[in-house]
Amino acid sequence: MQTTNNGTINDALKVPFQIPSIDSHEEEAVLRVLRSGWLTTGKETLAFEKEFSHYVSGGKDDVTSLAVNSNTSGMILAMDAMGVKEGTAVITTPYTFISTSMCAQHLGADVHFADIEADNYSIDPNKVEDILKKDSAHKIRAIVPVHIAGNVCDMRALKALAEKYDVRIIEDAAHSLPSKTKDGFAGTLGDIGVFSFYATKTLSTAEGGMVTARNPDFIKRMTTMRMHGMDRTTWDRYTSPRASWEYDIVEAGYKFNLPDILSAIGREQLKKQETFLDNRTVIADMYNDAFKDLDFIELPPNDDGNCWYMYLLRLNLDKLDCDRTAFAKEMQAAGIGISVHFIPHFHFTYWKNRGLCAEDFPNAEKAYQRTITIPLYPDMSVEQVARVVETVKQIGSAHHK
To answer: Residues of the chain whose pLDDT is less than 70?
Structure first.
């Protein structure tokens, strides 16, 4: 999000990259909590978890949700519940935010990376199987696919691999609420799903996340580890007849809980998910219609269940006399807020020092070199969309070979 020093949206930007969709409902929800006398994890969070479970289960209520203070926290809990630790490993993609792999590193585990598909941003199941075939010591505990920009990975293929090689699946669903395929919502298709409620996400609580699972053993472990390894929640300690100071520490846990103020915002945001999705889809359709006949652009992947969290503008560099970086800088100079999703792991010093290199991931490197993320959020106006389209066309025309 583009901001000035006083914290307001930068007026110099004709179209900001992202603005959260907040109105009086979220404001009133926060005031309700502030006036209640209970600010940390309590009844609002319990209600948020229940409502989230109902939503992503399609009303079946066969999913349990645990609110956490970030997707990263949720990912650590999920990996821990699956026994990810020193001497084990996970498989994920190098084309994602760094936290996905770092969670495994924090737990002492190794990370194996599989390239993305040639014409998609999703992890390639064939590359995943290549890694699984080499796992003679059975160290790999989980496959961690990431649903980039709300476009769902090939979960059927990945689940078939998980069953064949006896591993689990943790879905990094940070981008994918409310992506829904024929098999259900993303984040409920594997063993554990981990969502993000960061400031720019489709459901925002400023910071926060949610973990979903059906396996009661996973839920029990994550519930305990979420709050210091304690056998009682704070809400239970202060609202039940049992003395508040009576509790036990049964594991070396973490401090990953979500406070009620943020949960109250999340409950209001959850009610708007279908409206938000409709608005984002309309904007994505406008972009697709405007760009479909431009030979210097390839439309982003749009598979079953895509929630259009982001619009990944893919440049056909063979038709341009500039690279992605120059194109992106000209868009910024024109007042369009943009970003790049993602810098692959092999471009970071930490992973380069551990042997990762671009040559081993040609699809991820190609995607990175030609992708720009352009504005897409529910409250974008038609005029703002038109301004983005006009700018892309002008820059493309100026640099067309």
So the answer is: 1-13, 235-238, 243
